[in-house]
Design a protein that fits this description.
Its EC number is 2.7.1.71. The chain is of the alpha/beta class and 196 residues long. It has a single domain, classed as Rossmann fold (3-Layer(aba) Sandwich), CATH 3.40.50. It is built from 8 helices and 5 strands; from the N terminus they run H-E-H-E-H-H-E-H-E-H-H-E-H. Strands 2-3-1-4-5 form a 5-stranded parallel beta sheet. The chain is globular, with a radius of gyration of 17 Å. The structure holds adenosine-5'-diphosphate, shikimate-3-phosphate and magnesium ion. The site of adenosine-5'-diphosphate (ADP) has 16 residues, from helix 2 and helix 8.
Amino acid sequence: MSEQLLTVAESLKDRARAALGSRNLILVGLMGAGKSSVGRIVASQLAIPFIDSDLEIERVSRMTIAELFAAYGEQEFRALEARVIKRLLKSGPRVVSTGGGAFINDRTRKHIKKGGLSVWLKADLDVLWDRVAKRDTRPLLKTENPKQTLEGLMNARYPIYAQADLTVLSRDVRKEIMADEVLKALIEAQKESAAS
Ligand SMILES: Nc1ncnc2c1ncn2[C@@H]1O[C@H](COP(=O)(O)OP(=O)(O)O)[C@@H](O)[C@H]1O
Ligand SMILES: O=C(O)C1=C[C@@H](OP(=O)(O)O)[C@@H](O)[C@H](O)C1
Ligand SMILES: [Mg+2]
């Protein structure tokens, strides 16, 4: 990278870090949007801690997400998810990537709205499907027609994800580019709030 490009990259990180302040940045959106992988890069760019709520749930329960769904059902999983996310958002700044259903749950959404700045990683069905089809770890997609299930979740959930503070289009580009787009959205949001 040329020296000039390096300076631009540094200034993007610094400006985004300043825009976030002590708030948490919370990634929401459907399965496959890139919350877990892009969130990790964003946190490393901002040099602040990263936590994935699903990994934290698995750590505290010592069970996988699939095992939790199978043993206790979705309702119990949502109750545990709400408690874990509430706790994760108590201090900041952090980047917290949530599981796809977290922001849809009323209680969890309230914790997220109170706990920091939310970013919806929004993607179209084909991008999501290409990514989730590669792994079979997601219990909600263990259906006869998982692509149709994903489309149904998209229709039901997109109006709710739209309540997030910021929206970033999750395109078929490298994760690092997506992470830069999150940083840029953060800076833009700060500029707009300073201007109003
Ligand atoms: N921008 C991207 N380009 C290519 N692959 C991606 C991108 N974002 C995510 N992926 C891949 O898609 C899959 C799902 O990503 P993940 O971060 O787990 O999404 P989520 O947490 O939103 O379900 C992973 O295999 C990940 O490596
Ligand atoms: O959309 C959902 O309801 C879920 C999404 C998953 O997380 P990812 O969005 O990170 O795949 C995980 O929390 C669980 O399988 C339920
Ligand atoms: Mg994830």
